[in-house]
Amino acid sequence: MTHSFAATLRHSVTAALAVVVLAGCNADKLNVPNFNAPATTTTPDIALVQNLASGILFQARANLPGFYSDAGIFGRESYNYFQTDGRSTSNYLAAAQLDNAGFAAGGWNGRYINIRNAKNFVKVTEAATFLTTAEKSAARGFANTFRAMEIFYLLSQRDSIGIPVEVDDSTNAPQPFVSRDSAYKYGIALINTAATELAAGGASFPFALTTGFAGLNTPANFLRFNRGVAARYLITYATLGGGTARFTEALTALNASFINSAAGADLRAGAFHVYSSAAGDALNGLSNPVSPDQVAHPSIVADAQSNAGVIDARVTAKTQTIPAKSPPGGASAGIPTTVGFRIYPSNVTPLPIIRNEELILLRAEANIGLGNLVTALTDINFIRVNSGGLLPLAPFANADAALTALLYEKRYSLLWEGSRWVDVRRYNRLNTLPLDVPGHFRIKVQPVPQAECLFRAPLDATLKGPGC
C-alpha cells in the first residue's frame, strides 16, 4: 500500500525495515543502522535476521506512545497542554473537529510501515538456508503476531471507517479499504495463524527479543503473549457484532496465555517496550521528563472510589498533585488540572503492551458477555481488592451492573494504556465522557489522514478512502 509518504516510500521503506540492530549482546540497546544500505537486498545471514526482527520491535515501540496519548485525550484520561501550540487541544477536543490534516489524524503511516516490515522479514527468513524449518515457523509466528497487532491498533483508532489490511509487497500499489467486520476477521485469523506457527517454532527464536519480553522470549512462551493479544482481539470483536462465540474463543485463548490470578500473582507481569539513554536508542515519549505537558484529566481523581476514606490505590500509584496547568488558549479552550501522571517517572520507564492485570479483566469481560456474572465477579473483585485496595462488590443485579463495574476497573487498572476510549465507544457509552467547556465534543473515530485521501482521490472508486 502507498500511504501519505508515497513519494518517498519506494526508496525509504526498505531502509525502515531494519530500523535498528542490537548493540553487542544487549538486546535492549537499539541502534539505528545505515538507512542508505537496504538490508533486504543483502544475502541473508543471522545478523540481518536480527536486524529485521529488531526493526519490527523498534517500529512497534515507536507507534504505541502516540496511540496511548491520542486515546487518552479522546477518552478524557489525559491532556497535552503544550503551551505554544493550541492544536494539541483544539484538534482533539474542540474547534478543529476531526481535522484530517491535523494532529488527531495520527496512528497511520507507522503502522503500515511495520506491517510491511513484518512481511519482508518473513520473506528474508523463508529464503534463509541457514534457518531450520522450526526456526522459520517461529519467525513467521513472531512477525504475524505483530502484523495482527498493528491491524488491531488501526481498527481501534478508525473503527467504523474501516482500514486497508494489506500492503503490496512489490509495487506499493494502494490496497482497498475493508469494513471493520472484515478487518477484525482478518486480524483474528492472522493472529491465530501466528499461534500455529509459534507452536511449531521449536525451542528458541533465531533472534533475540528485548528484556521487555522476559519470560515470553521463546516461541512457546511468546505464544502465551500471542494468546493474550488474541483474547483482546476476540472480545473487542464480540462486542462489535462478532457474536458470543468469540467470547468463548477468548476464554480458550486466555487459558493458553500468561494469565495468573493465584494469590500473590504479579499483576504487572507481561510484555513491555523498553528504553535506554544509549546512543541511537529511544526514550519513553510519555514520561514526565520527556513530555511534561502530558497531564491527567481531573475526573480521574474525582470519580475514584474509596475504602474507609482512602482513595483507590491505583490513583495514588499512577497520579500526583501538580501546580495547576491550563490549556493554551485559556478558559475557553478547556479547564485547568492539578493532576499529573506518575506512571512513567523516568525517561526509560518501560511502556506496557499487555499485562496480567488486563488479562484477568478480559476474562471477566468475556464471562459477562456469556452471562457468567458470578464468575466475572470473582475476577473483578480480585483486581479491585489487590490492585485498588477497595472492598469487594456484592453480586451483580444484572449484566449492565456487571459491565459498569468492569469498566470502572479497566479505567483505573489500564489508565493511559489506550483502553478507556475504545471501551466506552464499543459499549455505546461515549456520552459518559465529560465535556469540559462548551464547544468540546466526543470523538468516535480518528479520520483517514488528508495525505492518504489526496493520494487516493484520482484512483478508482474502489480505492478511495472512506470519509475523505
What tags apply to this protein structure?
468 residues, mainly alpha, Serine Threonine Protein Phosphatase 5, Tetratricopeptide repeat, two-stranded antiparallel ribbon, 15 helices
Question: Which bin fits the share of residues in helices?
Answer: 40-55%
Give the number of DSSP strands: 10
Strand content: 5-15%
Order of helices and strands: HEEHEHHHHHHEEHEEHEEEHHHHH
Rg is 22 Å
Q: Main sheet: which strands, in order across?
A: 1-2
Structural class computed from helices and strand pairing: mainly alpha
- The name CATH uses for the topology is Serine Threonine Protein Phosphatase 5, Tetratricopeptide repeat
Span between termini = 17 Å
* Gross morphology: globular
Number of helical elements: 15
The average pLDDT score comes to 91
- Highest-level CATH class: Mainly Alpha
**CATH architectural label:** Alpha Horseshoe
Number of domains: 1
Low-confidence stretches: 1-38
The main sheet comes to:
2 strands, antiparallel
Would you give an account of this structure?
This protein has 468 residues and is mainly alpha-helical. The chain has helices at residues 6-17, 46-74, 87-93, 109-127, 133-158, 180-199, 219-242, 245-255, 299-302, 313-318, 356-369, 373-386, 399-413, 420-426, 450-456, and strands at 21-23, 26-31, 78-80, 270-273, 294-296, 306-307, 310-311, 319-325, 337-341, 351-355. It has one domain (6-283, 349-463): Serine Threonine Protein Phosphatase 5, Tetratricopeptide repeat. The protein contains 15 helices and 10 strands. A hairpin with a 2-residue loop joins strand 6 (306-307) and strand 7 (310-311). The longest helix has 29 residues, at 46-74.
